[in-house]
Design goal:
The protein is an all-alpha fold. The chain is about 80% helix and about 0% strand.
Amino acid sequence: MRNLYLTLALIAAWGGTLRAEADLRLEERLWLAKGEDLHALEADVVREIQRNPQSVHHHYLLTNVYLRRFMLQPAQGKLLEQALRLARQTVALDSNSELGYLALAGIYDDVGKVAEAQEVFRIFTYRATIKRSWRYFLAKAKIFISADTLDNSLTLLRKALHSEGVLHAVVIPQVIAMIDAKHAGDRDAIVADIEQWRAQLPHHLFDQYLASLHMHAEGYQKAWQIYRDLLRHQPHNHAWRRNQAIIAYMYMGKEEEARQEFIDLLAAAENSSPIEAAVVNMHLGIIALRQGDAAQASRAFLAAIAHHADNDTLLGFIVEAYRGEAQFHQLASFLEQLNVERPGNAVYYGLLGDVWVEYIGDYRRAAIAYENAIVLDPYDSRFYSALGMARYRLREFEQALQMFGKARSLDTLNATAFYNEACVYALLSRDAEAIYSLQKAIELDATLREHAREDADFDKIRTLPAFINMVN
């Protein structure tokens, strides 16, 4: 019977340890979550409160969920009210726990009421019954920080990092931010401090930040070596493998080595992480561009966009890759294929038009692209302005005037449309209309006055008193 009691006690203790670890993982999720993840996180925390309505820790977490949501949406005052109500409820659940007070102090600090936040600290700091965790030192370091107390705040963070149960991923970024602020851009001093902290408290976050510092100083070999050392301990960390491969092909000429690494990473990412698959495909595309394989580059870029939800951002990186290699016709071909495989996006056609205009000088094809963009989105004035410029370059002035007129009718504050319209009127010797449109353009954007002084399009009206008065 004694052995049975001992077994049951061990099971209970083990279960309590698992719950504590799960709670810490939930808290780490809170502090590292992106805005779009907060609703799912809120549901998980509420579920825990439903299981244990007296849980001080989960009330503390829910308070901070609402506070984070409010900071992202300041117009939603009800979120702040909910956070305050929950913080007070957390204090009421256990007045001998630090969590409710920390929640209140955090709310006041985040909304700019620093004096109130510091007062909350003073209320419970002298109460010996309240046990202080790493959260206490972290909060105090942030709330009592000033230009003169950075060293004190860093000392508090050091205490936090040596406290039981500390979440390193939450505290270390604060350490790095304070070291940055302390040395105000002095890279060598920042590197020295980070290396000192890393020696005393080894952690991959310090290593990764050092790698980024070396990257910015063109110390690519040092950055590559840091990731190599990290991977000796965790050889399957995909993020580190990816970062090392990026450094290898971008700055060290190891394109083939990096390409093989990306292919290996892609096999794992395809089934687990669409965003990771998108990023890896994008880098495979860039390597293909550098190696002169435009067809393979296009396939990789199209695969990247197929995996990524934020296509516009990803497309910006892809366009920069083509620009960096000066492969403008290949960029146009890629965008044309993109419009075939993912039809119905006016932005893609607009971008294609920009490529034909800015990099290739084929204004006829540009006009066709902008017309397609307008069919898909007839209410965006930018497409009409762009089409007007293409018609202007083709010296199809009447059609250009129609497009500029449509652009300014959709956006009455579009100074560029008025200005371009004035240019065409001047070229057509329609002096009064040119003066009127130029006047409207300058009223909306005074910097256009300087452009008008030098613009050859206004040569025919340059001696008119109205023009002289306007530009001077």
